[in-house]
Amino acid sequence: MYTIKTYNAIAEEGLKKFDVENYQLNQTDDPDGIVLRSQNLHDMKFSSQLKAIARAGAGTNNIPIQECTEKGIVVFNTPGANANAVKELVLASLLLAVRPIIEGVEWVKTLEGPDIDKKVEAEKKRFVGSELAGKQLGVIGLGSIGAMVANDAYRLGMDVVGYDPYVSVDTAWSISSRVKRVLSIEEVLTTSDYITVHVPLLDSTRAMISAEKLALIKKDAVLLNFARGELVDLDAVISALKKGQLKSYLTDFADERLIEMDNVVVLPHLGASTEEAEINCAKMASKTLKYFLETGNIVHS
Ligand code: MLT
User: Fold this and answer.
1) Is the Cβ atom of 290 under 6 angstroms away from ligand 1?
2) Which among 29, 66, 131, 193 has most CB atoms closer than 10 A?
3) Residue 140: partners with Cβ closer than 8 Å, 6 or more residues away
4) Is residue 74 part of a domain?
5) Please, which residues bridge with residue 25 across strands?
6) How far is the centre of ligand 1, averaged over its atoms, from the C-alpha of 60 (Å)?
7) Number of domains into which the chain is organized
8) What is the CATH number of the domain that holds 91?
9) Are residues 206 and 246 in the same domain?
């Protein structure tokens, strides 16, 4: 009999869908396995019984990996399970960056009277945008999410360059041959109109978008960060925005320094928040944990 602790209802649902004959859910503080989403485990005391932690999502920065490794606790994520959801939000945000969709919707709501259509036709020139097609997108990090963003941005007509020091050309995520692979992050930064970051948060990637890197960016470029807030040096981003070096910053990570700024769009960490992604992650985390506890092997399915 294995005991599993879940930290959210979706993970619990995922586990209940499978053969739970040999499992007890949430009935102990000394579980064999944990399934969680974004809960921070850095201050948690791990029980001697704990064998594995399954993160229903991509990033594992909410889990103290080093401590787990020292204690022999296996940690795994659910690679690719929410990639489509994040990709769709990144593409939507790219479109928001070029078309004043939010401003247009808000303006229409202020109109009154029988001649709304005439007012619209007379004033719509206030909301002229631009197009993504023909502009260059630089994708930093070509894992499951970055590769999907790169492929679909190409399908939108963008020129796409991608940089990732670790992903081989034969990556399972079939990066289109139309995505030009470049050998340095500097090349992405100096040549792209839009730059999107898709790397995990590690000691080596924390604040990787630094003041030094931002100084290389084309004037008027747009930066997107839907991976982790700490990947950018936020003070340096704000300074680049104020100096007009960066046209805008679109991110899924709120910070009070960003809230009042005009040329910033901040979403409340919605990248993976679709029904489909939540189910995919819960299923993969639960199935993988169950299989690991039974066999000692990690096989994502
Ligand atoms: C991820 O790391 O995949 C996301 O942050 C997941 C989430 O929103 O929980």
Assistant:
1) no
2) 193
3) 146, 162, 163, 164, 185, 188, 195, 196, 197, 198, 199
4) yes
5) 4
6) 9
7) 2
8) 3.40.50.720
9) yes
How far apart are alpha carbons 6 and 114 in whole angstroms?
Answer: 55
The structure tokens listed for 247 are 């046209």
Residue 301 domain flag: no
Q: Same domain for 141 and 124?
A: yes
In angstroms, how far apart are the furthest CA atoms of the chain? 72
Domain that holds residue 247: 83-266
Catalytic residue list: 228, 256, 269
Mean per-residue pLDDT pooled into runs of 10, the chain (301 residues)? 81 65 73 92 92 95 96 95 97 97 95 94 96 98 93 96 77 69 94 97 96 97 98 98 96 96 95 93 89 93 80
Q: Is residue 92 located within the same domain as residue 43?
A: no
Give yes or no for residue 10 CB within 6 A of ligand 1.
Answer: no
Global pTM reads 0.92
Cβ of residue 78 lying under 6 Å from some atom of ligand 1 = no
E strands along 94-220, which residues? 136-140, 159-163, 180-181, 194-197
Please give the ipTM for the structure prediction: 0.93
With vertex at residue 153, the alpha carbon angle to CA 152 and CA 154, rounded to the nearest 5 degrees, is 85
C-alpha of residue 145 to centroid of ligand 1, in Å: 12
68 and 214 inside one domain: no
153 and 229 inside one domain: yes
Residues 47 and 103 in one domain: no
